[in-house]
Specification:
155 residues; alpha+beta; 3-stranded antiparallel beta sheet; 3 helices; elongated
Length: 155
């Protein structure tokens, strides 16, 4: 996927450059102005995604009352804090493919009505080791089950 994206960015750059040349000669072209704006946004998204794949990381900070996840690329990123007592069912979520859709394996937990994920691309052994370490120090609640071993995301 990363090779495709690098190739796509090369082609993207050629299209952007040619359009910018046309606009520099004749700026009164509303369609090309609209097109280059969308093209620029798409390129920014692709570069950000590529950087996230190559140099991104998730930093997890667990404190007595909070669970913080910082998603960053190089030194830029954002942190979201979650109240630890409101977290439920810290678990490994396997890779999921359906049609053209794909979700990488990750660690997930329930937070109210939302499912929060982090640590994309871990294999099950790594994820279970991280989950065990967190659970040893900070007990994350587990929702009681009806005895079924199949989770909704596995069916």
């Amino acid at each position: 996927m990363i090779l495709f994206l690098v190739f796509w960015l090369g082609m993207w750059q050629m299209g952007w450059r040619d359009t910018a040349k046309q606009l520099s000669r004749n700026p009164a072209q509303p369609f090309l102005l609209f097109w280059i704006a969308g093209w620029t946004l798409g390129g920014i998204w692709a570069v950000a995604w590529c950087l996230r794949m190559l140099a991104g990381q998730d930093l997890v900070t667990v404190k007595e009352d909070t669970f913080g996840i910082r998603k960053q690329v190089l030194t830029l990123g954002w942190t979201k804090q979650y109240l630890r007592p409101q977290m439920r069912d810290l678990r490994f979520r396997p890779e999921f493919r359906k049609g053209r859709g794909h979700q990488a394996s990750c660690i997930a937990f329930d937070y109210g009505a939302k499912t929060i994920t982090f640590a994309d691309g871990l294999d099950e052994a790594e994820a279970n080791q991280i989950i065990a370490t967190i659970q040893q120090r900070y007990k994350i609640a587990v929702t009681p089950t009806d005895g079924s071993t199949v989770k909704f995301w596995q069916s």
